[in-house]
Each structure stands twice: as structure tokens, then as C-alpha cells.
Amino acid sequence: MPARIEAKIDLDRLRNNYSSLFLLSKRKRMIPMIKSNAYGHGALEVALTLKNEPQLEALGVATIEEAIALRKEKKLDTTRLLVFSDSCPWDENRAAIFRKYNLSVVLHRWSDFKSFIARNHHHSIDYHVQWNTGMNRLGIELENLAAFQRLLCSTRKRHQLPRGIFTHLAAAEAPEKRLSQHQLKKFQYLLSELKPRFPQALFHMANSAALWKSKEWKITSLTDAVRPGIALYGIPPEHKWPVKEVKPVMSLRSKCVQLHTLEKGEGLGYGFDYQAKKKQTIAILGCGYGDGVSRLLGNQSQVIYQRKRLSILGRVSMDLMAVESPVKKASSSFFDHCRFELFGDRLSIWEQALQAKTIPYEILTGLTSRIERTYVGK
Ligand SMILES: Cc1ncc(COP(=O)(O)O)c(C=O)c1O
Questions:
Q1: Band (21; pLDDT cuts 50, 70, 90)
Q2: Contact partners, residue 303, CB within 8 Å, separation at least 6
Q3: Which of 118, 157, 183, 313 could make a disulfide contact with 133, Cβ separation 3.0–4.6 Å?
């Protein structure tokens, strides 16, 4: 039975996007970000698709629960899984979980780093260290640099040294900003202090936007690895940035569940927020905010049916929304087989995001489990 609302996810495109970003990075080690259910695309399917791609360093997740769910899949038992934002203080219990599931950890608090080393956990757990260069979200302050080196001074074995040293950029899309330049300078300082001491460590800072602006951020000369998220899924990090390199992996499509004819002056849906100016046919689609479609799209946005743009009429409700109908009458095959695109190749997710006063990241991660995800190109 065709789904009421379906996200079609093209895994060939995902692989192609990976290759393009790999080339754009000038063949750096890759840490694809697959947190938040791979930006709504399905973390397991995405992980299985990328696990054998060239130069894959690790898959990036936010939470330990996300990492454990992936590790339980047999086919991922040798893929490195890097947990970026574990929120618990570092202690023996935390270490036991990371060891049990063979996970890699990002240490972003100075107290955690000290505890990690004091307990000799660097002998058995793979780790990256995050530094705060100005975003002021996560990361160890640079004033701890000398103490950091002292704590590791007796460590000689390669596997006990940090596998990665990195920072995160607050405005990667705008390297020209004064605060971005400040971040860049601090990263360069980190590099000059730590690279000679830890030549084995992978230095990284680039998300998707920084990859687009590689030259300004000096990605090729300063870093060894990159961490693309949104671009991997085929979406430019900023509205209207030119994208030849990547293509959208997901298209979201809904089917029509009923047609109605409105007479002039008749209202539609909750609050009668739409009233017909003349006699017209409307199509009720089987999707709503319970699936993650924003209420702000009501009376604002459009969907695509066979290359034709159709306006969304009235309020978006939990399970349903109305659009102009492309037909006056419909057969059962129309209800069974016809699909209305909410976003994808013909209607960019950025367009919808701007109308919903948000960004594609929020739309994608807000898609609920009611949406059937179907995969092509496996
Ligand atoms: C630490 C870190 N690196 C990389 C990314 C990927 O960012 P983007 O999706 O903008 O490429 C994120 C996403 O939020 C992140 O938190």
C-alpha cells in the first residue's frame, strides 16, 4: 500500500555527495555527521551506505545512545563511531560503556580530560579533544594548553595520544567576520603548539559551510579531516549558494486522500482560514504537522504536482493539509499513485525552510517516525 507520506531517500546520491565532498576537501579524512538520525535520513541506512567509502575516518553522532544503536548492527562492528556531545561527566561508568561498545569519545571539558588521563582511560579508549576557539559552546579553553601537554608528556604510545584535535566554527559561512578570523587565528595557534608534539593527530574544523569556503579557512593546509553534515545530504549550507557538487538525497511526497469542491465564499479547515474566491476544487493531502510539516506553511507555501506549483490553502493541521487541486475529478488510481512533492528536486527545501522561518536542518530533523522512509540505490 503506498504510504500516506513518504520520504524517498536516494543512497546513490548520498555516495556521490560523499565523493564530491571528499574531492572538495582535497582528499582529507572524512567524518560524516550522521547525528539526529542522519539529519532525518535514517542513521542506520546512511551508516551502512558510507561504511566502506574511501578515507572514512569515523561516523559522527551526538549522543552515546545514537552510537550504541549503530554499534548493535553487526555490519558496523568495525566502523569507528565518534560521540561528539556526551553530556555526562567522565567517570568509570562512562568509560565502561565506551569500552563495551568500542566507541570513540570527544572530550570537550577540561575536567573530563583530566579525569580521563588520571584514570588511564587513554590507554584503552580512542579520543578526540575539542578546543574552544571562540564559539563558546563546547570545548576546552586555550589557557589549558600547557597543562594539556604536561598531562600527556609521559605518553609515548601512538594509540594513547589523541586521535583528533579540533574546533567548531560559529560562522563558517562568513570567514571574513572579525570573530571568524579570531577563531582561525586561535586554531592556527593550536596547530603551531600541538602539531609538532602530536603529529599523528588529525586536526579538523570544517563543517559543510567551511568546505565551501575552503580557501578562506585554509582547510587544505591547516587540517587533516573534515566533518560535513548538511552537504552530505545534498543541501547547500546557505540559501542560494551554488551547488553543482551535491544533489538532494531526500524528497518528501504525500498522497491525496480526498477532493472537495468549494463554492465561492465557502471556508476550508480549522478557523476557515481560507475562503474560496470562486468555485474551486481542492485536494486534501495526507500530511500535517504530526509528520513534521510546519504550520507556518499554511496559506504561504506551495507543493509540486507534475512540475506544477500548487498553493497550500488554509491551516496545516496535524494529519492533513489542503492544496489547489490539479484535477476536477479523480479516479482511485489518482488517490493510490499520485504524489505531491513537499520538497526535493523540484522544490528546494531551502524555499520551504524560509517560508517556515527556519533552516533545512530543523525541517529534516523534525520529520517524525510516521513518515515512511523508502530507500533507492541500495
Ligand atoms: C561538531 C560538528 N561538526 C560538524 C557538524 C556538521 O555541520 P553541517 O551540517 O553544517 O555541515 C556539526 C553539526 O552541527 C557539528 O556539531
A1: very high
A2: 254, 285, 309, 310, 312, 323, 340, 341, 342, 347
A3: 183
Ligand 1 nearest atom to the CA of residue 230, by list position: 9
Q: Are residues 352 and 277 in the same domain?
A: yes
Q: Are 218 and 255 part of one and the same domain?
A: no
Domains identified in the chain, total number: 2
Q: Using DSSP, state whether 113 is helix, strand or coil.
A: helix
Q: Which atom of ligand 1 is nearest to the CA of 39?
A: 9
pTM for the predicted model, two decimal places = 0.96
Atom of ligand 1 nearest to the CA of 231: 11
| 205 CA from centroid of ligand 1 (Å) | 9
Atom 1 of ligand 1, nearest CA residue: 168
Whole domain around residue 117: which residue ranges? 26-227
**What is the residue whose three cell numbers read 538525497?**
249
What does the pLDDT look like over 155-189, one tens digit per residue?
878 889 999 999 999 999 999 999 999 999 999 99
Same domain, 221 and 258: no
